[in-house]
Design goal:
It is built from 12 helices and 11 strands. The protein is α/β, with parallel strands linked by helices. It has a single domain, classed as TIM Barrel (Alpha-Beta Barrel), CATH 3.20.20. Strands 1, 2, 5, 6, 7, 8, 9, 10 and 11 form a 9-stranded parallel beta sheet that branches. Strands 3-4 form a two-stranded antiparallel sheet.
Amino acid sequence: MSVFVIAEIGINHNGDLDIAKQLIDASIRAGAAAVKFQKRTLELVYSKDELDKYRESPWGSTNRQQKEGLEFGKEEYDQIDRYCKEAGIEWLASAWDLESQKFLKQYDLKYNKIASALLTHVELLKMVAEEGKHTFISTGMSTMEEIRSAVEIFRAHNCSFELLHCNSTYPMKNENANLRVINTLCEEFDCDVGYSGHETGRIVSVAAAAMGATSIERHITLDRSIYGSDQAASLEIGEFEKLVSDIRTVEVAMGLNEKFVHESEIPIKKKLRKH
């Protein structure tokens, strides 16, 4: 089975639909299977005090202005939905509250996503699981017991899911990847396990693919130096294209679980083993 590569656009579009479309186009060229966004109802996700805090951004001087500047509404998502369908790529989004999940439901998406921050939001998990769509569940910042509780909800609703091993630091140091947990999660929960990476390079994600990760999710950006909290943990387009190519190379190289003399070795074997 081919590794399912998700290009996480998230909020790296900086509230600009043209940038979002450029990132969708780039994801298609790279060979991604899907692009992903994030949806929030600001008043439900953040307190008034948090929204009123001072924060300089291209949109103003408060948290609210910054977050409003980054948030797409129905008009933008209608265009994203149409654009992705015409281009032939799946799109999905992680909802950060119940109203946002209800909002996304109107688009009849093939996949759902639970962000690491929402893994313990029981009501949201139940709402998503009730939809019955294959769901990617990120596990950053989570204990095994927290993951187990989430898995039980999805199994109780007979909803297919895939865990994503994740470290929720932005950017993540390579030594904190702890990739062996991919195997631990697979054995513990008897399910597919992918990897959601926040490192700056490609090698950790490629290693995850070699270890059997069934999906790889990485943030992408047009330019890591532009404004945005996720930009530094993202791959620029050229690097993302190389990542997808590296993953496909790994898939071919992994081969089979049996030792045999390859056809290309036969003439060499005859020559070198004359004795």
